[in-house]
Amino acid sequence: MSAFDCVIVGGGIVGAALADALVGEGLSVALVEARSIGAGTTACGMGHLVAMDDNAAELALTAWSVALWRELADGLPRTVEYDACGTLWLAADDEELAAVSAKVANYRAAGVRTEVLDAAALYEAEPALAPGLVGALRVTDDAVLYPPVAALHFARRAQARGARLWCGRRVQALRPGEVVLEGGEVLAAGRIVLAAGVASPALCPGLPITPRKGHLLITRRGAPVVHHQLVELGYLKSAHGTDGASVAFNAQPRVTGQLLLGSSRQPGVGTREVEAEMLERMLKRAAVFLPGLDGLQALRVWTGLRPATPDGLPLLGPHPEKPWLWLACGHEGLGITTATGSARLVADQLVGRASAIDARPYAPARFLTAAPREVAHA
User: Measured at the alpha carbon of residue 109, what is the angle toward residues 108 and 115, in degrees to the nearest 5?
Assistant: First the structure.
């Protein structure tokens, strides 16, 4: 039996970043992944690093995480394709532009740099956009990257400092102090962290995580050229709703000269097939903002299953019923962004240190209650 201070189950970008953080704390760490590092939901993500302000807890975690990514940027391999392009939130009408002032206040209170663009400044920044937009909010320090290579970078760096990687090994069961692999091999662990995304409930029944399916498309090289990640402000009301399928315009420039297009969301859908109807809706929405897309060819279309929680925040911390088990899952569409902050937050708790942000909004105990103690009868 191999023994470790911590065994992390799930080698997506969150698990890999956590392995890197814990090795940096001097802990002995094993990272177990059923396939290859970053091959699951991480490989299906857009790779955006965005500060989001749907609520205070989301903004705190995303803004901190983006800042941590920025600190890492100079040391990332070129293959990670980190591009500090910033995000433009596009206003289609005066009502949407008026809503920008509240977002600016939220961002600035969190220390996030922003700039409001009028229509002239917007079209100077992005000439390929369709006419008629009235302005935009630029979030300066947002970025994009290639998620599976970023996950592999974290895992390899952890491995170089002593972590053990167990790839292609499925976990059969979690028990107090033990991770049982398929085939019966057992890894002894002082702590176990479950970071298996949508697969997490299979290993820990009762977790409030459900799949949200999303479609993505990447084009071949060619016009239209864009310089920022582009998102419609309507994204906040159309794509973040939880009542049925939705689409919104989201386009990213890639360092390869291609465009990555999203986004769609289908709550509760766990199939991975590409659905022509959803793809058509997504592309029609994108063409409203980028008319030059009509002449482009798609290189690849794929789907991903994002692990969603009821309140949209991840589960980061100890399981209240199982003190030997910690959770780092349920990031839905922000796992790439918040991998750095999530890893730091869980690592800080495991070593008993205060974090830069309050950990309580992400505590699993908000959904999971401690098992009632057996009452001794007189």
Answer: 10
